[in-house]
Every structure is written in structure tokens, then in C-alpha cells.
Write the C-alpha cells for this entry.
Amino acid sequence: MTYCVGIKVNEGMVFASDRRTNAGLDNFNSYSKMYVHNSIDRNIIILTSGNLATSQAVFNSIGKDLEDDKNGNNLNNLYSLNEIAKYIGRLNVKHSSPDGINQETIELGSTFIVGGQIKGQDPNLLLVYPEGNFIEASDDQPFFQIGETKYGKPIIVRAYDKGLSFGEAIKLLLVSFDSTIKANVSVGLPIDLCTLKGSSFKISNQVRIDQDNKYFKNISENWGSSLKK
């Protein structure tokens, strides 16, 4: 299991994902769930949760399609975020259906949060389901969560405001992650985080937050002590 969040504010978008994967209480590994793509006219961020093999296969296919850009679709030649979401949905369905697997008894799908901006278009945030279809963020649904969502969602719902600055939005997501990590062993540090500022068309604050990060420690301790009070 994992925990990923993409959130829209007036300033742009904030993305965060943990790196923990597990196959039992004594088998933990660390893999990035965030894929960041920069090119001349677009910035794309993709987060994933679900079957690790499927997620990695989708990311590998995205990379191969970019290398062989003369054949078929890729992140550079699709003209909108909606088309990119459809493309990722097709790859998701393809890689979650290996030969010889009974899909009625085994779930191999993944879920993806896709966000970014193409020059000349508004920033967009979308959620791609294992079945390949997707929905867009809206004023009523300004953020998406995937993975282990139940512990962190109440915090975002209570404190979210579209006028949040990037600093405030980052703090909100880190509190959400801290509460999830405390409550569920399948989510853990490090956390990959980045922001996309719409006005400057630039990915920034791209950092990895590990167990030695003083800012995250401070947020965790202050949040815990405030709850006790």
C-alpha cells in the first residue's frame, strides 16, 4: 500500500507520495511512486498506487515511448492532459492483464493521479482508474488521494482552502502524511514532494523528505502535542 495526494490551489498544484511498498509485516521496500516529466512546452507529474509491477510497467512504457517518439503517442506529442490521462489508462489496462492470469481472482491494476500543464492551457489534475477511465478535479473536488487515504483525508477536508499558499498547502499535506504514517504501517518515509506553479510554468520544491528532515519532525511533534492539548 502507499499514499499519494495531488491538490489544486490558486497558486498551482502540490504533489506528494510516500515510497513504501510491502508484501507482509517483515518485507518492506522503497520505490518512487512519482514520475516527473519536463519538456519545452509541458510539465507532467504522475503519482501511482496499486500493484507495483503494473505501476512500474506503466512508467517503463512511458519512458520507452518518449525514447522512440517516432512511433505512437507519448507525453510530448499528446495535445492535452485529458489525452495524456487516456494514454496512461490504456497502458494501465494493458499491463494489468498479463497472459495466463485469471482477472476474476487477482487484482493487478493501479490507480494514477496525473497533473500538470501544457503551454497555452490551464493546469489540470486528473484521476485515472484501474479500468482506464478517468475524472478531472473540480471546485467541488480540488484534490485526489490514492492508496491508504482514510487517515489523511479528514485533515485535508477540514483545512483545505483554494487560497492556501504553497507553504501552507505543503504543511497541510505533511500533516496528512504524518497522521497516515502513524496509523498505518504500510505507509512510511521517505516522501517525494513537488509543486507546479501555474503562473511561471515551473516545477519547484522538488524534494525528498526522509526521517532526518527537521521540518517534517517539527510538524509531526507540534501536530501531536496540539492534539493532546
The CA atoms of residues 6 and 15 lie 5 Å apart. The first strand starts at residue 3 and ends at 9. Helices lie at 52-67, 81-95, 153-159, 166-183, 214-228. The first helix runs from residue 52 to 67.
